[in-house]
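Justification of resources, computational component.

The compute hours requested in this renewal are based largely on the per-chain cost of generating structure records like the one below. Each record pairs the submitted sequence with a full structure-token output. That output is archived, and it is also reused by downstream analysis tasks.
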Amino acid sequence: MSTYYPKAGDLKESWIVVDARGEIVGRLASRIASVLRGKNNPTFHPAVNPQNHVIVLNADKVVFTGKKLRQKKYYRHSGFPGGIKEEAAGTLLQRKPTEVLRLAVKGMLPHNRLGDALLRNIRIYAGDVHPHQAQLPVDATLTKNAK
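The structure output for this chain reads:
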């Protein structure tokens, strides 16, 4: 018996639309990362990009639990000495609402070239409209009980 490795013809591009309204950031991000990796496909292979695209709507209406809006910090560095910047989750959510979810999904993907390629397959929008109707996306609920 040989090890299965999916060929390029075996992979079909799929588009999924997810509504993030009222969803908890970390739980939604882990489900999105799982779909981007292709772990819900029977042809899953850890080294292959399955070409699953996720469109996230209403990213500005995600929810943090507990005191994370004030206490969770996001850091960035300019590369110069003393150039570290710190921002609370609440202010980042107001300033760039899509960045909070993007950073959460990025942290749950592999930290290599495959992870970079998978991160390019997610489109996050603060509102409830998107310009990807031509790709015929399928509405999906990525809740804990969805199958």
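The mean pLDDT is 93. Helices lie at 25-37, 68-71, 89-95, 97-107, 113-119.
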